Amino acid sequence: MHIAIAGNIGAGKTTLTKLLAKHYKWEAQLEDVVDNPYLDDFYNQMERWSFNLQVYFLNSRFRQVQQIRQSGKDIIQDRTIYEDAHIFAPNLHAMGLMTNRDYENYRSLFDLMESLIKGPDVLIYLRSSIPNLVSQIHKRGRDYENSISIDYLSRLNERYEAWIHGYNKGKLLIIDVDNLDFVDNPEDLGNVINTIDAEINGLF
């Protein structure tokens, strides 16, 4: 089974991925931020590195999806290939940080990859307000995220909502995370797990 967690920067995807992997004994596939050779450069000079970064993520996630399907294991994935193509790349393009030529090249590559993969069995979308995202980003204190503006997060949030509204790749679970604390409040995590149990049991 393939479960994926989607959501804006700071929504709590990685934290929830790890907690659910531990609870269900699923294998966690985390986003490649540590070994990503473009991330620091991108945040310092978005226009120059946006295409390189997006192609890197696309390649990395396409590989992940293939491995998930081939492994036959129950896997939970932190962020999906669709978010890059429906949210991050078009947002960079709309902000003038990716040229038309690069964006069309990127979209063509994504369309080809999408034709070869299947969506997750269940997508969990973590919906969050901007103040909550900002608070979480500051709390984790990653240097390269210090320059992220509220305007940038707002644009991403709008695109997330539009994408989720039309999402049709499989089962969708929306969790509002503004008033949830998975880490320090076991009851909150328990409620999320109960919701997921109901969704997963409905698959069989």
Automatic annotation (TrEMBL):
Keyword annotations of the record: ATP-binding, Kinase, Nucleotide-binding, Transferase
Keyword Kinase: yes
Domain of life, source organism: Bacteria
Gene3D superfamilies: P-loop containing nucleotide triphosphate hydrolases
Entry annotation: catalytic residues: 78
Chain sites annotated for binding ATP: 7-15, 180-182
Domain Deoxynucleoside kinase residue range list: 3-198
GO-annotated molecular function: ATP binding; deoxynucleoside kinase activity
InterPro entries reported for this sequence: DCK/DGK (IPR002624), Deoxyribonucleoside_kinase (IPR050566), DNK_dom (IPR031314), P-loop_NTPase (IPR027417)
Residues that bind substrate: 31, 43, 54, 79, 84, 145
GO cellular component: cytoplasm
Protein name: Deoxynucleoside kinase
